[in-house]
Amino acid sequence: MPEASVTALALRHHGTSLGYVVREPAGTTIDMAAVKALGLEPGQWLAALKDPEARTVVISGTKHDTAALWDKVTSTAAEDSIAYMTDFRADKAERGRLAPLLSAGYRFGVLARLHLLARRIEFGVVLLARRISAATRLA
Fold first, then answer.
1. Domain map of the chain by residue range?
2. To 5 degrees, how large is the angle CA 20–CA 100–CA 109?
3. pLDDT in the model for residue 2
4. Dihedral in degrees, nearest 10, Cα atoms 122, 124, 129, 130
5. What residue ranges of the chain have pLDDT lower than 50?
6. Which tens digits make up the pLDDT trace of 53-70?
7. Contacts of 131 (CB under 8 A, 6+ apart)
């Protein structure tokens, strides 16, 4: 199973720009709070616990059944994703087109605010560059 996937999305603006969605699939993780709740300390036994061939694991001199311990100290992590998009129109039509391509929890309000912030920064940089250029010509 891949650790993560990256998808490029064509974004509409004056031309086409690219956005990216990075997705991490659902998986199983070690719940360190559960490990501590059992009075266990993290260590090499965690790697041994992940070995599908191992039937038992020894922790601080005590033998533990790996299947039973696995059930106690693991949890399922939901799929997670993050999107990077800038320099595009965040209008209703574009949001509607992109929504199915993004995670259900993604909020276009944040996306729109980030887009506007990026545009303001870009505009500020362009103004600063023009002022420097004008000052250089006058000198």
1. 1-26+78-139, 28-76
2. 70
3. 56
4. 120
5. 104-110, 112-113, 124, 139
6. 889 998 988 999 999 999
7. none
